[in-house]
Write a structure and sequence with these properties.
CATH class of the largest domain: Mainly Alpha
Order of helices and strands: HHHHHHHHHHHHHHH
Number of domains: 2
Largest sheet: none
CATH topology of the largest domain: Serine Threonine Protein Phosphatase 5, Tetratricopeptide repeat
Number of strands: 0
CATH architecture of the largest domain: Alpha Horseshoe
Number of helices: 15
Strand content: under 5%
Structural class: mainly alpha
Helix content: over 70%
Shape: elongated
Length: about 250
């Protein structure tokens, strides 16, 4: 049930919510137009094109922390992590209160192999009173610990995420993986049941709930959930995974 590595949390959305308007950009004429074009490229997964636009923006105005963050996002998508780290650090240097950047910096550090430093950045973001989304910083910490097989800490941080905000779907999946790693699937069941109510159409949560029932020996409930997945997603990955589980199901 493993998933992708640490998220770069809502990166483009965060930049967009923080950035000046396009009208102000055109009026200012100081790189904002390049910045907005770069964001469009990022959304369309064209990081190389985005990088060129952000470079132009930074050349026009190197003191804008949003431009530096955009540069860091493009470098991250291109797998150029040291360059991403440098850009994110510059953004924080220009605006120490730009807390969202700590999530991005932590991600880039972890992807570059500096896991302890990355976790430190997530923790700083979580503890910052001005952080608008501490639950996402907690989620990043949970995922980082999960990838390191530190399941106890992963449980702690994923649970912290959900205590803050029940609408972080990925935290339900991470919490299930952590409980499975600890050999305690029964502990995952109550939270996954809540997650299934919060996100009734989320196949990942439903598969994990079925798996938790299965590992806890609750085979009838597991069978029902796996069958539900195959009905909802007959040709998809989740459906195939559920169908495979059902082939050799205990009677």
């Amino acid at each position: 049930m493993k998933r992708i590595s640490v998220l770069v949390c809502f990166l483009c959305a965060v930049v967009l919510s923080s950035a000046p308007s396009v009208r102000a950009a055109e009026k200012a004429g100081d790189g904002e137009t390049n910045f907005n074009v770069g964001l469009g490229h990022l959304r369309e997964r064209r990081p190389a094109a985005a990088l060129e636009e952000f470079k132009k923006a930074v050349k026009l105005n190197g003191s804008n922390p949003y431009f530096q963050k955009g540069l860091g996002l493009a470098y991250t998508q291109l797998g150029k992590y040291p360059e991403a780290v440098a850009a994110f650090r510059k953004a924080l240097e220009l605006n120490p209160y730009y807390v969202d950047v700590r999530n991005d910096l932590g991600t880039a550090l972890i992807l570059s192999g500096k896991r302890s430093e990355g976790r430190d950045e997530f923790l700083k973001a979580f503890n910052d009173a001005t952080n608008p989304t501490p639950e996402l910083s907690a989620r990043n910490l949970g995922q980082a610990y999960l990838e390191e097989n530190n399941f106890t800490e992963a449980v702690n941080w994923f649970q912290t995420t959900l205590n803050r905000n029940k609408a972080v779907a990925d935290a339900y999946l991470g919490l299930a993986d952590a409980w499975f790693g600890l050999g305690k699937p029964q502990e995952a069941i109550p939270t996954l049941e809540v997650g299934n109510k919060e996100f009734p159409n989320h196949l990942g949560i439903l598969v994990n709930l079925a798996e938790a029932y299965y590992r806890a020996g609750r085979f009838n409930e597991a069978r029902g959930r796996f069958e539900e997945v195959t009905r909802k997603d007959p040709a998809g990955e989740a459906g195939r995974q559920a169908a495979e589980r059902l082939k050799n199901f205990p009677r």
